[in-house]
Amino acid sequence: MKNEYILEKENIRKLIKLLATAEGKTLTRLKVDINHKYNKTDSLENLANKLRNKTIKVTELLEIFDVLEYELVIRKK
Fold this sequence. Notes:
Blueprint: H1 12-22, H2 27-38, H3 44-53, H4 58-67
């Protein structure tokens, strides 16, 4: 059975931290992996601010989920 998580505006930060921890990664390690895989140079602080302020882009979420080896599924309620 697969685990499912509902992504809501209010829980983005907590969900990403939960998934990272479940995969044995800190947010720092996650950001290093994202930067390496996607040839980026932005900082952990930048990611943390986006998560805290709920201003993260969908493309950035897709990168995070890709590095964590999760997929984003859209389903009608």
